[in-house]
Design brief:
Strand order of the largest sheet of chain A: 1-2-3-4-5-8-9-10
Radius of gyration of chain A: 18 Å
Structural class of chain A: alpha/beta
Number of strands of chain A: 10
Number of helices of chain A: 11
Strand content of chain A: 15-25%
Order of helices and strands of chain A: HEHEHEHEHEHEEHEHEHEHH
CATH architecture of chain A: Alpha-Beta Barrel
Largest sheet of chain A: 8 strands, parallel, barrel
Helix content of chain A: 40-55%
Largest interface: A-B, 49 and 48 residues
Oligomer: homodimer
Distance between the termini of chain A: 17 Å
CATH superfamily of chain A: Aldolase class I
CATH topology of chain A: TIM Barrel
């Protein structure tokens, strides 16, 4: 098993949680770091990993404020994922991966749309060298996801058309990705993606709560980790809310699904 | 004309150059800011705009080192473009756009693959409100560009298949983009993209020099601005090299193409 998949499974087991907290805090600059640190400190017992996006990276800096958050996450035993959705040429992707991993991220998210050669290949190379993870986008949670992720791609050789998200799922298997993203707002897509990945590559699913996704539908379709952001960070009591969501997930897993997926 | 297209045309006229300098400097952290500032100070007379990518943003921070570079670029009369290739959900794209524009960038680059609703729409809204620009990717310069940008997309309604890059070019027109990216390594794609955009949306073309693209072929296919990075920043004399490339471009424009494109 890859190092990142292993630390995620370990963390899930230790915490009894499949929640990846999306720490997408928005606030005035002077309050931002303290607020993010506070929510992490409140909710850490009920989550198995942390996901950071540009909400924190741009105002706080990767090697400045964000590094402090990553250090705290590691002290709390939490793996950290950078949601940079890397989609540049290989030369730049290498720089992106090296910087985020060096700052302490355990995995980064990338877009398979750029392809392999001089595209994502250098990210996978850096990840392997540094024992870190790569998670690929297969279907996003927003309304316009149909425009790109849902489009039908025509293969001149076979004469057949396939949905873009299944092409991406196959690349995730082929390239040895440590996870894929598939939005909880589209459980029917999660189901099809799971049928390709068969549990070999775990599905991380954002879009629960504020965006309309449903825990039970996402899990029963094949999502393994649920990425939760605004429902927890905008709650009056983030710890209590994270605990409640964790329990809802575990109830679904034990009552309805047994240990699957 | 949109504010960003206007300042680009003004800058091109004033500088007599169509070079957008990609300041993708790689060095030890302690030397990075000084080296980037030095190259900008050397080459500024021969370029019409500056493009910054994660090579500087991640190590230096947007509101720290990068802001110093942007302030210098503006003092030198140069518009600045952030090559973030934004491809997130709308909620996050809004944060990305607001931060980069607030730091002083005049335009950002985004990937039309994410679509409009809850996708790129918020970026265009923020750009309009702050009088800044949005440049969309249509075809990138790397080897694997065929995998995504070059794929054939099947439209069930019409029963026809179109290349992804022409779908993106049409979206650039429809959404009112201020420019598109099309790699100089694929002049035949630039020609097809130009046939859709007809000069209404200018083509920015990376990939000249190190990646194998040719100035004359890119310009005659319809590229307007040429994005040059490593050829200038890795040169022994960046100013002299930038001047030489500027003159080569202007020679092609005057001798072979008249004032077109």
């Amino acid at each position: 098993m890859s190092p990142f998949k292993f630390i995620m499974e370990e963390s899930e087991r230790r915490k009894g949680s499949r929640i990846v907290l999306a720490l997408d805090v928005i606030d005035e600059h002077k309050n931002l770091l303290a607020k993010a640190m506070g929510i992490l400190g409140d909710a850490y017992e009920h989550i198995c990993a942390l996901k950071i996006n540009h909400h924190l990276v741009l105002p706080l800096g990767v090697f400045d404020g964000v590094k402090k958050i990553l250090d705290k996450a590691h002290d709390l035993g939490l793996p950290s994922i950078m949601d940079c959705k890397a989609n540049d040429i290989g030369h730049t992707n290498r720089v992106i991966a090296e910087n985020y991993y060096k700052a302490g991220f355990d995995a980064i998210i990338a877009n398979p749309f750029v392809g392999w050669e001089e595209g994502l290949q250098p990210i996978f190379e850096v990840a392997k060298k540094m024992s870190r993870g790569v998670i690929l986008l297969t279907y996003m949670s927003h309304k316009a996801a149909w425009e790109g992720y849902g489009q039908m791609v025509y293969d001149a050789a076979s004469g057949e058309a396939s949905p873009q998200y299944l092409i991406f799922a196959k690349k995730a298997l082929l390239w040895g990705a440590d996870g894929v993203i598939a939005g909880a707002t589209y459980p029917e897509k999660i189901r099809e993606i799971y049928a390709v990945l068969r549990g070999i590559v775990p599905i991380y699913s954002p879009g629960i709560g504020m965006q309309g996704g449903d825990i039970e539908m996402a899990l029963s379709a094949g999502a393994h980790y649920l990425i939760i952001g605004r429902s927890i960070i905008d709650a009056k009591d983030p710890a209590e809310t994270a605990k409640r969501i964790k329990n809802s997930i575990n109830k679904v897993l034990s009552e309805r699904l047994g240990s699957r997926p």
